[in-house]
Amino acid sequence: LIFLSNVTDQFTLLSLKSLVTRDPYNVLSNWKSNISFCDWNGVSCSRGSQRVVALNLSEKALEGTLSPYISNLSFLQILDLSSDSFHGYLLVDFICLPLLEKLYIRKNNFEGLIPQTLSHCRGLQILSAGDNKFYGSIPQLLGSLSELKGINIRGNRLSGTIPPELGSLTHLWILDLSSNMIGGTIPLPLANLTKLISLDLRFNKINGLIPPNIGSMNKLHELGLSGNAFEGSIADSLYQLVRMYNLYLEMNALSGPISTSINNLTNLRKLYLNSNNFSPGIPPALCELKNLIWLYLHDYVFSGELPSDVENLVAVDKMDFSVNQFSGELPVSISRLQILEYLNLSKNSFDGNIPEQLGHILNLDTIYLSHNKLSGEIPKSLEKLQHIQVLDLSFNLLKGEIPSGGKFANLSAESFLGNYALCGAPKFHVP
């Protein structure tokens, strides 16, 4: 019986090889009947029965279709075909793979429906099928796989809604459904996933409110809701997610004020609030987030002066407040952001002079100040910015001579367009 089972495993692997049309690294070159299949590249066998328990052919640039006979590997626990070029339908009868624990098929070209028979893999812990061409709905039966710790089905063509049954997966750490065409609302039972560390629903068609019970996911480190149609205000309970590192809420229809409770999120590293309909004004509490490294508030309706409290964001290296209605002078205090590399304040109504102290932020490599009402001369202190690659001062009211030292020698006329009182080197096309 063991011999027959071994023959079955060998036959199954050879059938897989026969459907591989491209093997640029000759990974399957030792898949020959005169060599024990347990010694073949990518194959792992159990010690006793010599049955295939793992098949790892990831990142081998293999092309072809996947043999349906792979269902005969009845002892299989791990199947890893990620980052290859397999295509066609996933014609695997998962009923015959009851021991499967980890399925990695991301970054291929598989298409069709996600097989319902996956629900028979009762011990499945990882389902990684992102970046393929699967379509149809997310199978409700996935909610019965109580051992699941990670689901990644991002970057497919999935539609329908999020099954409430997924709220039963109480061991789940990661749920990534991003970059699909999923609609509907976030089902309330999803908040039962109290072990979840990362929830990524970005770039779908999900609408409605952010669930009021989202604060129950109190282990969340990352929440991605960008690029959907969420509306209403940010749920109060979201501000209870004190372990949050990355919060992506941009490109929705969220409204209302940003609560002062945002200062509870003291671990935040990345905050994207841009392209929403929030009430004007940056709450001072936001400037208390001293661990922020990326802050994106562009394409917004912010108005008034840029608060001097931004100096408290001492860890920030990317800051984008562009396409708003800010006015007044640029605060000198911004020069205290010594880690800052990227600064975009373009398309506002800032006036007054460019602070000389801006040249003290020595890490800056990108500055966008275009389309404002800035006046006066360009500070020579900007010549000290040795890492600067982009300096866009176009369409302001600047005057005087364009500095010639430092990295200014590498800049082009586009950096200074629309400032009719500037003068300088001929290459800048100014008087």
UniProtKB/TrEMBL annotation:
Q: Please verify whether the record's keywords include Transmembrane helix.
A: yes
Read off the Gene3D superfamilies from this record: Ribonuclease Inhibitor
User: Start and end of every Disease resistance R13L4/SHOC-2-like LRR domain?
Assistant: 116-277
The highest taxon in the source lineage is: Eukaryota
The record's subcellular locations are: Membrane
Q: Does the keyword Flavoprotein apply?
A: no
Q: Which UniProt keywords apply?
A: Glycoprotein, Leucine-rich repeat, Membrane, Repeat, Signal, Transmembrane, Transmembrane helix
User: What's any one GO cellular component for it?
Assistant: membrane
Q: What is this protein called?
A: Uncharacterized protein
Q: Which organism is it from?
A: Nymphaea colorata (pocket water lily)
